[in-house]
Amino acid sequence: MSWLFRPVPLARVALFRRAVYAFVIVDVLFMHTSGHHHGWADPVWYRPLEMGRLLNLPAASVALVEVLRWGTVLGAALALTGRLPRLSGAVVAAGWIWYQYVAFSYGKVDHDRGDFVIALLVLPLIGSAALGDRRRSELAGFVLRVVQLVAIATYFLSAFAKVRFGGWDWVNSATFVRAVVRRHNWLSEHLLHIPWSLHAFQWVLFTLEITAPVIFLVAEHWRRRMVYGWYLFHAATLAVVGIGFWPHLVMMLAFLPLEEYRLPRQARSPVSPSRPSTPAVT
């Protein structure tokens, strides 16, 4: 329990929350916009996912996707101001998740958004959190720990799925060659002439994913280096095959002491210096 509820500064979760809600606006308006297009799709193509079957959600309509789209954006904009954090966070969670449901009920489901869903659900648990608030909160630590767990589960379960559905041929065949042929660019074309490198990288990726939970067992300085390493890996993936796991990259920020990157060490805390700081469980 002490590990799960380890107190962290409220400033950390405030910065993380702003990164999440800023991404929501960019994602809905500019990146993952298929949910908006599906409002004009013929309902005959609608195939409800488990969520839709349980909640009896209807097929998308133009009115529905417009409400979800702009309601989510306005909710995220309000959340960015720090006002009504629980209400605005709940609006964003409901709107964004439903909007993604519309996108994925007409085609494939992107696994890189699973941990982002969990983050949106747990962030409204935390009330007000200022950018300069150095008070430590057990609830804030719990929220970030949950995000960390699902982010690492994304890696581990991805490796498990590769073997479960593709077998060991996933790492022993030409999986990356096929990906490069489909989404090649001037950089990845050179790798086609070195096929052993792509085969080796399949094993490297699988090993990194299956051992991802080790991040919880190492010291803090190694944990940061592992996160930086994952960012470099995703940068390489984007450069070679043009695939970016953007919402997942935002989730990996939960491992970093964000307040240290923004505030000087001698930044004043809102807690009076004459009183000891206590965990602000909100």
TrEMBL record:
Residues 5-260 form the HTTM-like domain. Its main location: membrane. Signal peptide: none annotated. The chain crosses the membrane at residues 20-39, 59-80, 87-104, 116-132, 139-161, 200-219, 231-256. The keyword Nucleotidyltransferase does not apply. It is a multi-pass membrane protein. It comes from the Bacteria. Keywords: Membrane, Transmembrane, Transmembrane helix. It is found in: Endomembrane system. InterPro entries: HTTM-like. This is HTTM domain-containing protein. It comes from Kineosporia corallincola.
